[in-house]
Amino acid sequence: MPESTLNEQTFQPSVFSLEGKLALITGGGSGIGFYIANCMVQVGARVVLTGRREEVLQEAVEKLGSKAEYFVNDITQLATIPALVEAIENKCGPIDILVNNAGINMKKFAVEVTDEDFDKVIQTNLHAVFSMTRECGKRMINRKSGSIIMITSMAAIYGIDRVVAYTASKSAVAGMVKALTTEFSPYNVRINAVAPGFIETPMMLTAMNGDPSRRDKAMDRTPMGTWGKPDDVGWATVFLASDAAKFITGVSLPVDGGNSIGF
Ligand code: NDP
């Protein structure tokens, strides 16, 4: 390779910068979403957080500082999504990065899951993710620029007991990434997923029900032998959103201490 070409490829820390970018993070007020927002702000992005609880969002924005805004919204109210995205862009400018993070879990034996239970999980984790992606994707396609990141789960990679609706929803989102890669790539819109393993958040601790044996079992399956921190997911998301990943689309990146490989 000629030396001039090598020099042009010299490492620039700025490829990880999100300076000048606006990121919309659903469920950004707490748990993993808050840490994604925090990591993005640290590398220069402005962030918009959404969620149902205003007091949680307010507190998050206070911690994040002047680069953060929030909009109260229940993503399962699908009909409100176009107006939400319009209001965000009117107030904050074009959305460059969408992180579909908001999600719920429900732990029950499959035979005890009611139709209402199933619909609730699918509506939050799948249908709302599609609606949000369609609304933001449309705008990104028009601008020929954007990055969409789905937060899926190791449940989309292997089977976990008592989370049938959750697994179905996350697997479907992983499928959506593949379908949309082919549709969105010609318009310079990238779409990827981050698949977290066991991350210390209220959702995961509740799912473990304070049962130490379940925690031990989870760690037995994790080669690195530790729980992940929410900012482990945050930094992976920054990477996928940044120019460092400008030729990466259609992938699901596990952030799981090797859990999806197992022993
Ligand atoms: P938390 O329960 O801690 O946070 C979930 C967030 O989603 C909250 O901010 C919540 O805000 C928001 N949310 C939930 N429902 C709605 C709704 N209807 N409308 C708007 N916002 C909503 O979960 P985690 O941080 O642990 O999970 C974040 C993502 O990571 C989820 O998609 C989850 O499936 C995924 N994940 C997590 C793992 C873990 O180990 N923690 C492992 C694998 C995947 P509010 O209640 O105010 O609406």
Automatic annotation (TrEMBL):
<protein>
    <submittedName>
        <fullName>Glucose 1-dehydrogenase</fullName>
        <ecNumber>1.1.1.47</ecNumber>
    </submittedName>
</protein>
<dbReference type="Pfam" id="PF13561">
    <property type="entry name" value="adh_short_C2"/>
</dbReference>
<dbReference type="GO" id="GO:0047936">
    <property type="term" value="F:glucose 1-dehydrogenase [NAD(P)+] activity"/>
</dbReference>
<dbReference type="InterPro" id="IPR057326">
    <property type="entry name" value="KR_dom"/>
</dbReference>
<comment type="similarity">
    <text>Belongs to the short-chain dehydrogenases/reductases (SDR) family.</text>
</comment>
<keyword id="KW-0560">Oxidoreductase</keyword>
<feature type="domain" description="Ketoreductase">
    <location>
        <begin position="21"/>
        <end position="197"/>
    </location>
</feature>
<dbReference type="InterPro" id="IPR036291">
    <property type="entry name" value="NAD(P)-bd_dom_sf"/>
</dbReference>
<dbReference type="InterPro" id="IPR002347">
    <property type="entry name" value="SDR_fam"/>
</dbReference>
